[in-house]
Amino acid sequence: MEEDQLALLVQTLKSQIGITSEKITQLQTVSNTLLKPEDTEAVTDTKTEPSNKSLTRELEKRRLQLIMDVQKHDYVGEKLMVLINQSEELLAYLKLFLVEPRVASSEENSNYISSKVNATAECLKSHIQKTQADQTRIAMKLSELNDKMTYLLDTTITGFNNKATTGTKE
Question: Are 14 and 94 part of one and the same domain?
Answer without folding.
Answer: yes
